[in-house]
Structure to design on (67 residues):
């Protein structure tokens, strides 16, 4: 389960899509960039269970950003 998920726009002009995000998974902090196409670029270490986590991140971003 993701803990302490947070995100913010990558650009000052909020009309430009792209967000940075961070969360904790298994007591390790991970960060990345969520791009307008739905692609995820990890900053630093790639988490285990990457595909499972990508699905969770997509769901959270759709709920918070696009809804």
């Amino acid at each position: 389960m993701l803990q302490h998920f947070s995100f913010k726009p990558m650009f000052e002009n909020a009309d430009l899509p792209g967000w940075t995000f961070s969360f904790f998974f298994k007591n390790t902090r991970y960060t990345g960039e969520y791009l307008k196409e739905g692609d995820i670029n990890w900053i630093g270490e790639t988490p285990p269970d990457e595909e499972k986590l990508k699905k969770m991140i997509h769901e959270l971003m759709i709920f918070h950003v696009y809804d």
